[in-house]
């Protein structure tokens, strides 16, 4: 007897239309699949994260080492034995594990993979010169094994396009006048001075790239020479984990690295870049596996990456959520862009729509960053909603305790008369984003040329990440632990130390009921800009208290 993929997947993901089918792979072609073994003590991990992240807890800041995390969640001896025996019975012995022993990455031929996972059929797909191998059909797993696995990675998920659907949208500006966001503009708006740069030896930050995107060291150096003259900074990345491609620099990669390094200035910076050794690898999953295998990691990671929740299996998202908890208990802050599609829109059938949340933005264990624009695009003024700013309510994760009463209940009461119909969203789901920053009209250096009008929450996320790195710097110099998972502390501030954004709405479904409008900004927290944008000196003071 075999259990079909419904054991793992709530729905079988369609191959996106922008991928071209090339054909079946050769049976002898080598694949690499990732087996996510069931972990132990996930509830205890969640409790521990809550305690070490709550400033009112006696355990605040008492983060765990990778070894301590491993001893907590390591799969049972039985689970490890059953999965390894299953693999070995199919002749699969070329496997790597991680320090936490909850992932196995195994290489095998396509023929062996299709025997191991009945129903799977591996095909090659291409898009924009990128080639990947995935299964076009659901797989099954023997019922003796399925209870020991969360999912098998490398079969179905094709990477989405980058978040920046809007990356070159141009401002309709009078007579061609354009201010444009640069490091100097950000420093002016968020009240960073020339002395707000890193000095701690044991501090570092990182960006992670997954979409065949590469940054160019020459572009970074050029950007810093043009825009970094007024403050001390690094002009080079200290460590690249993975393989940098030889192609042209990617817009998103350049944006991420240039702005985390100019905001979190003078702080050692890493880049995680993973095109994968095999066409069957999933780069995002590969990054998560790496985090479970490295004891020395940067304190802040910013990631501009997301997928529609409904395109992923619940089992996959739940397990990735546990991986975020594993990072949080170690004192690592994970920041994700909220997306560039506003509330999103999913067509459910005849004249029936709903908003479309994005993951990992909707995970309760990451800090999600939305986007804003200047009220007057020609001046450093107050901020309003950027209409692309992703936000809303998860259909998978319940609303975490840290945000229910303090944030969401208050918002629902304040704007009750103007809320979209409840059929469009899950009122009890994790609400996001948590905070925001400018996401509109950035200057980026790419292929040695300054390019204007780059927009998206891919811009706001590294800016917030850089500021949190600066705050970590001051905490480490005082002998305090790194901030770690920020949300419980952020929500207890109740908007203190942030500029509240109260104007504007983001995109929603283009239909008769909501007419293109999602949620709207309001005083205090809202599902468009979170608690608002950072007032750096005030946020530093608030987060240095203990």
UniProtKB/TrEMBL annotation:
Cofactor(s) the protein needs: Ca(2+)
EC number: 3.4.14.9
Catalytic activities: Release of an N-terminal tripeptide from a polypeptide, but also has endopeptidase activity
GO CC terms of this entry: lysosome
GO biological-process terms attached to the record: central nervous system development; proteolysis
Keyword entries, A-Z: Autocatalytic cleavage, Calcium, Disulfide bond, Glycoprotein, Hydrolase, Lysosome, Metal-binding, Protease, Serine protease, Signal, Zymogen
Membrane-crossing residue ranges in chain numbering: none
First-listed, main subcellular location of the protein, grouped into a coarse class: other
Molecular function GO terms recorded: metal ion binding; serine-type endopeptidase activity; tripeptidyl-peptidase activity
InterPro entries recorded: Peptidase_S8/S53_dom (IPR000209), Peptidase_S8/S53_dom_sf (IPR036852), S53_propep (IPR015366), Sedolisin_dom (IPR030400), Tripeptidyl-peptidase_I (IPR050819)
Broad enzyme group: hydrolase
The keyword Signal appears for this protein: yes
Active site: 252 (charge relay system), 256 (charge relay system), 458 (charge relay system)
Subcellular location as annotated: Lysosome
Peptidase S53 domain sequence ranges: 180-546
Signal recorded as keyword: yes
Top-rank taxon, per record: Eukaryota
Any coiled-coil regions, as ranges: none
Family annotation (Pfam families): Peptidase_S8, Pro-kuma_activ
Functional description taken from the UniProt entry: Lysosomal serine protease with tripeptidyl-peptidase I activity. May act as a non-specific lysosomal peptidase which generates tripeptides from the breakdown products produced by lysosomal proteinases. Requires substrates with an unsubstituted N-terminus.
Name of the featured protein: Tripeptidyl-peptidase 1
Gene: tpp1
